[in-house]
Amino acid sequence: MDKRQEVISELSDAFEASGHSGDTAKTVAAYLRSEEAIRQMTEYLHHSGQVSISEFVHEMVAIRDRVSYEDDDLYVEDGPLEKEISKEAIFQYYKSASCGWRGDYYGDFGIRIYGDGRVEYRTYYYYMKPRTNYETEISPLAAERIRELLLRNQDSMERIPRSLDNGSCDGSGQTFCFGNKMIWALNIEYNDPKSVKKRNPEYYHKYKKNLICENRVFRLFEEICEILRGEGIRLSIHRCEFSANDSSLFSRIRSHIFRKKNK
Fold first, then answer.
1. CB-based contact 86:92 (threshold 8 Å)
2. CA proximity to 262, closest of 132, 102, 133
3. Count of CB atoms situated within 10 Å of the CB of 121
4. Is the overall model pTM greater than 0.70, yes or no?
């Protein structure tokens, strides 16, 4: 067992000792993205005994923010998502439940867009176990429009943290890959800053920077969705649908169903 696996094993033991599922260890390892952060979380759990989910998430975010990350290469530590992310795709989006039972289906999915117009769409059982796989195409023009859009926004996206924190403790996780820039969020949505400030001043001042970052990510995502809608692909934060009757859509769809669940 290498050093990283030893750390994750320690983290699993700490999870179970604190009343949390040991299966969550790899997900947390991917979120923290640092051996030092994982070690700190392990120590925290060992000394905290029973902790609430909200206390745990708060401390996890605090540890994450204290630890220096590796450079922004497309990199996910030992989590189930690492097997799905492609370094060749120009755009990727994955929606996943933040908690659940392995083998159950909660509407998780992912979509990849390649520079040559290829599109890969998958649905997943919980913990990124493949459920269905679809392959299709968009027009070369649409692929080029997405590529140009990403180039125009590259500098803006590079300034966005890889993990966004809006105070959520559960719900749906969203992973965006704009080229080689990966951004993870939880329950992301667009919010008008003035409206948030008026409605909840305390929240606004605490999460102002995150709110700005989420809005930038959401706007770029929506612009990509608009291009895809012209190709008959209706992508949103929560779902992805294909319109087979759209004349501008892909030339073929292939599907394969993974029938055996991983229980």
1. yes
2. 102
3. 21
4. no
| Cβ atoms of residues 58 and 165 within 8 Å | no
3-state secondary structure of 9: helix
Using an 8 Å Cβ cutoff, are 236 and 95 in contact? no
CA 24 to chain centre: 15
Nearest to 172, CA basis, from 189, 190, 192: 189
Contact between residue 236 and residue 225 where contact means Cβ atoms under 8 Å apart: yes
Q: What are the Cα distances from residue 57, in Å, to 4, 14, 40?
A: 22, 15, 13
Whether the CA torsion 125, 130, 150, 78 is positive or negative: it is positive
What are the φ/ψ torsions at residue 170 (nearest 5 degrees)? -155, -175
Q: What is the DSSP string of 121-132?
A: EEEEETTTEEEE
Contacts of 222 (CB under 8 A, 6+ apart): 190
Contact 102, 263 (CB under 8 A): yes
pLDDT in tens, 122-181: 999 887 888 999 999 999 999 999 999 999 999 999 999 988 888 887 778 899 999 999
How far is residue 203's CA from residue 199's CA, in Å, rounded to a whole number? 9
Nearest to 209 by CA among 222, 196, 224, 225: 196
Q: Write the CB contacts of 219 (distance below 8 Å, at least 6 apart in sequence).
A: 190
> From the CB of residue 127, how many other CB atoms can be counted at a distance below 10 Å?
21
